[in-house]
């Protein structure tokens, strides 16, 4: 669950989704891990969003959110946030839920950091 704490547009670094990416297999995503300009920080996929879109033939889609909106998405749907291009930056939070006993991706259990690669 992703919740903007203020109005959130493309200019404020809004969230984007790679259309249909939750249907991709691990094999289809594997080549995306190799393209990065940050060899010291392995990423789940390349952070070159344009290249990812071209490579997979999928579109990036953005949403415009208002304070208090709630966006629910599948954790396997590839998503990212855009760079801030305006005077105000995005402030948001996310909440993650899992059933007891589920196999949880360890990346979502550690404290966030600016270079965590998630």
From TrEMBL:
<dbReference type="GO" id="GO:0016706">
    <property type="term" value="F:2-oxoglutarate-dependent dioxygenase activity"/>
</dbReference>
<dbReference type="InterPro" id="IPR008775">
    <property type="entry name" value="Phytyl_CoA_dOase-like"/>
</dbReference>
<dbReference type="Pfam" id="PF05721">
    <property type="entry name" value="PhyH"/>
</dbReference>
<keyword id="KW-0223">Dioxygenase</keyword>
<keyword id="KW-0560">Oxidoreductase</keyword>
<protein>
    <submittedName>
        <fullName>Phytanoyl-CoA dioxygenase</fullName>
    </submittedName>
</protein>
């Amino acid at each position: 669950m992703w919740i903007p704490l203020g109005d959130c547009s493309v200019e404020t670094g809004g969230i984007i989704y790679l259309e249909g990416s939750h249907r991709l297999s691990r094999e289809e995503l594997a080549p995306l891990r190799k393209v990065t300009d940050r060899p010291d920080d392995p990423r789940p996929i390349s952070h070159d969003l344009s290249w990812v879109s071209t490579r997979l033939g999928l579109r990036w889609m953005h949403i415009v959110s208002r304070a208090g909106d709630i966006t629910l998405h599948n954790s396997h749907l590839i998503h990212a946030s855009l760079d801030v291009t305006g005077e105000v930056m995005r402030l948001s939070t996310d909440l993650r839920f899992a059933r007891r006993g589920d196999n949880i991706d360890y990346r979502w259990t550690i404290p966030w950091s600016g270079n965590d690669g998630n």
